[in-house]
Design goal:
The complex is a heterodimer.
Chain A (H helix, E strand, L loop, with lengths): L1 H25 L5 H26 L7 H19 L6 H27 L5 H19 L1 E6 L2 E6 L11 E5 L13 H20 L1 H11 L1 H6 L4 H24 L12 H14 L4 H17 L7 H16 L2 H23 L1
Antiparallel strand pairs in A: 1-2, 1-3
Chain B lengths: L2 H29 L6 H17 L5 H24 L7 H23 L4 E2 L8 E4 L2 E4 H23 L1 H11 L1 H6 L4 H26 L2 E2 L5 H14 L4 H21 L5 H15 L14
Antiparallel strand pairs in B: 1-4, 2-3
Helix pairs in contact in B: 1-5, 1-8, 1-9, 1-10, 2-3, 2-4, 2-8, 2-9, 3-8, 5-6, 6-8, 9-10, 9-11, 10-11
Classes of the chains: A mainly alpha, B mainly alpha.
């Protein structure tokens, strides 16, 4: 019951916000600063929902979500660039790019997951951290170009020579330049809704329960016949795929994108959204993402102090939510509400 | 340059990583937390030493001592105000708090000292030993010797003294240690103090290798040292030493013979391979989970 209610809440938050923002956007009442944030917020939300499945529901710390976003982003940009001559419709190209980005990120998820999901705890965290750094380093050194003869790529040094009329898709440390911006806010909202629906359905299914059982007690879960590695793999790959799709959308919303954008700090940022929103709580993740993306922008007036304040807010939130007195207070409130509910039920 | 001189450069960088990793590993062993703010303590140490040497004109030893004092106070204060209230919280909450502290230190440094890079003065004399055609600078020797001395002192301290055995007891079981009359909070503070003091020494050695001081100076060495600690088996002192040295050597050799741009990727790839073969690191103990 509770789960159903939180599903309705999170879907309605997204849909109402979408309607309001779309009206503001159409009537030109949204500042350019905020309208430029719309698509990135959707991408962060989708990546954070995926990460929450991985960290909250499956209980494995993943510090490499930005790596999967990076794979999705640059795959998406390349796919869109390659198809630009074939498919003129932006929407179809966007969807294709996002699907390919998702699949490739998922494949990398499987490759990383097979050996590492046998590790647990902090060791898995360090492997995902290392993976994120490796991806950043590899993309920074990758040069990819396309002309009528096909694709050309080189590594470390730019040795790609193209026929006249050919174009570079990836430029090493410069990343992708001159990308056609085919991403839209609507696509972002649809992506978030699909991710939400997927995760909620998964949580209600047998596989989802197996994932949670494996999180709560690995040994007990395997003793009743759950293949722990396989269930953890499912959560990990789905999470990677969501990050990939989000990355593709993100990449296609900027005309230039550098590989170093997807660094360790981005992985941490998404993890912060998940933890502050509450582990396993998707509605919380959505709200935390919205607040924390817009907070530094709202503090823009304070210019130099804004990141300092952001850091202090972060520490204060963690200290307050873990404070014994606050916990007891919340517990009391919950009990009181329950008693009231029970009283009403008797009448 | 010959293979040997690359190897020596690798040992020098590796020694710096090892000193930082020792701090990481001790804190992890006792408080069971990933202290992501450790890298930023290094940054504070570097700025302190920088101002001590340039503005106050102090020579090497007093500058290092001052940096150690500042970092120790900072480390203990961070533990007292940010981590201690979270003793009973989930490890993820502590991790996020550590990240918050890291952001706080970086941004405070940016406000106080701007993000313009400053050039660290050379505090060591510039000479070098000549050894059969191979020249080894004094700084290199000092760095490697410092690292070995620190490792040996820490091993003696942890294994031979009363406080050291209290530390080991806390690392194994805090509840049982408290019942034996050990003041767990004091031991944790002491661990943070030692780790931060080591970070200050590492900062001076690091800045003698890469002499630019910026507010984000500590981030990458912090991640690398953490990697080194995991590489050697987190929680183990000789493991952190070995992991740090190997990481430094791999980084320099990969940069010299394969590609400078890809050296970071190679370091992390080696880490992944090592963890796949030995999931608890090179010298880490495998802990059996009991039902």
């Amino acid at each position: 019951m509770n789960n159903k209610r939180s599903q309705i809440v999170s879907f309605s938050i997204i849909i109402i916000l979408y309607a309001v923002l779309e009206i503001l956007l159409k009537t030109g009442n949204l500042s350019s600063l905020f309208s430029s944030l719309l698509i990135p917020v959707c991408c962060y939300m989708a990546a954070a929902i995926g990460l929450n499945l991985n960290v909250g529901i499956s209980g494995e710390l993943n510090l490499g979500q930005a790596g999967f976003m990076s794979i999705g982003a640059f795959t998406g940009i390349c796919v869109s660039g390659m198809l630009s001559g074939v498919i003129s419709n932006g929407v179809i190209r966007l969807v294709t790019a996002m699907i390919v980005g998702m699949i490739l990120a998922g494949v990398f998820g499987i490759l990383i997951g097979i050996p590492t999901l046998k590790l647990s705890g902090d060791y898995l965290a360090i492997v995902t951290l290392a993976f994120g750094e490796i991806i950043k380093s590899l993309v920074t050194n990758l040069y990819l170009g396309m002309d009528s003869r096909g694709l050309h790529f080189s590594f470390v040094q730019n040795k790609v020579s193209l026929e006249p009329g050919g174009k570079m898709l990836l430029n090493g440390a410069m990343g992708a330049t001159g990308t056609e911006r085919i991403a839209s806010f609507t696509a972002g909202v649809i992506l978030v809704l699909i991710c939400l629906a997927f995760v909620y359905n998964l949580m209600d299914s047998g596989s989802g329960r197996a994932i949670m059982a494996a999180r709560d007690n690995r040994i007990a879960a395997s003793s009743i016949g759950i293949d722990v590695t396989r269930t953890k793999m499912l959560a990990f790959v789905v999470s990677a795929g969501m990050a990939g799709a989000a990355g593709a959308l993100y990449g296609l919303s900027f005309s230039t994108l550098e590989p170093r954008k997807f660094d360790f700090n981005l992985s941490i940022m998404i993890l912060v959204y998940v933890v502050l929103g509450g582990l396993g709580n998707m509605t919380g993740t959505l709200i935390a993402t919205m607040l924390l993306v817009t907070l530094p922008q709202m503090l823009r007036g304070l210019s130099d102090f804004r990141m300092l304040i952001y850091a202090i807010v972060l520490i204060a939130m963690m200290l307050i939510t873990n404070n014994e007195k606050v916990k007891i207070f919340i517990e009391k409130m919950r009990l009181r509400r329950k008693e009231k509910g029970a009283g009403n039920g008797e009448n | 340059m010959s293979f040997l001189s690359y190897l020596i450069n690798g040992l020098r960088l590796g020694s710096v990583y090892a000193i930082i990793a020792l701090g990481y590993t001790m804190v992890y062993g006792i408080a069971k937390m990933l202290n992501f703010a450790h890298g930023d303590v290094i940054m504070v140490g570097a700025y302190t030493a920088f101002f001590a040497a340039t503005a106050a004109g102090l020579p090497l030893i007093p500058a290092v001592l001052l940096a150690m004092a500042v970092c120790t106070v900072l480390g203990v204060a961070i533990e007292r105000f940010a981590y201690k209230p979270l003793r009973s919280a989930t490890s993820l909450s502590v991790l996020i708090t550590a990240i918050g502290v890291s952001y706080l230190l970086q941004n405070a440094a940016q406000l106080l000292w701007t993000s313009n890079p400053r050039i660290f003065p050379s505090l060591f004399s510039n000479g070098a030993f000549e050894l059969g055609g191979l020249s080894i600078s004094y700084v290199t020797v000092i760095t490697i010797v410092t690292c070995i001395v620190i490792m040996v002192c820490l091993m003696l301290f942890v294994n031979k003294t009363r406080t050291g055995s209290a530390m080991r007891a806390c690392a194994e079981d805090q509840g049982a240690a408290a019942l034996m009359g050990i003041n767990v909070n004091r031991i944790i503070s002491l661990t943070f103090a030692i780790g931060s003091g080591l970070a200050a020494i590492a900062s001076v050695l690091l800045c003698s290798t890469y002499p630019t001081v910026t507010p984000t100076l500590g981030a990458m060495p912090g991640i690398k040292a953490f990697t080194a600690a995991v590489f050697g088996g987190i929680g183990s002192i000789p493991g952190a030493f070995l992991g740090g040295l190997l990481l430094g050597i791999i980084e320099i050799l990969a940069g010299a013979y394969i590609s400078t741009q890809l050296s970071d990727a190679i370091v992390f790839a080696v880490l992944i391979i090592v963890l796949l073969i030995r999931p608890s690191g090179l010298l880490g103990k495998k802990v059996r989970e009991k039902v």
